[in-house]
Amino acid sequence: MTRPWFALALYVVYMALAFGWRSLRQRRATGSTGFRGISGPPGSLPWIGGVLFALAVLLGLAAPVAELAGWIGPLAEPGPLLVGLGAVATLTGILGTLWSQGAMGESWRIGVSEAERTKLVTRGPFAVARNPIFSFMMLTALGITLVLPNAAALTSFMALVTAIELQVRVVEEPYLLRSHGAAYAAYCAKVGRFLPGLGLGTAPRSP
To answer: What confidence tens digit (pLDDT) does each residue in 176-197 have?
Structure first.
């Protein structure tokens, strides 16, 4: 299997499990898929984050397809060691994403609805990082970029990281602080944002 085909297979499996299967499971459990759409009015930071996330997903799919079609080539030809490292990172990211989604249970959502007040989850991977789903998503995207280092994959990774930073800092942390108050502030003070020990401190004040 060539690298683009391998990357495409990894990406399709990732999307099918992390979004398709998880949404179906959420619907069976709660009656809702968990999708809440893009937050904020057009042009706002939350809206930009949502658009960048959608762009990252599309470019992630386009990266192997474009290389298979001969429209773009690799920025550098990765050796077997780098491809292997990328594959391990991708598979770890996929499994970690599913683990973290499962730990959220019925509180799992894509996006935020101000009308909802979900349970604050601090167990499992959430005891180590406040946003483990996003942490593992970034690891997955990085792994695919190592397997397929072309311009589309790199742009997808950068768009995803930017989108996640905006979503967490501008949308989710203020929302969780409004919802859970002192309990969430205390949680932020002892658990890192994406990695253990990094990003400690209270979340931004609720507007």
So the answer is: 998 888 999 999 999 999 999 8
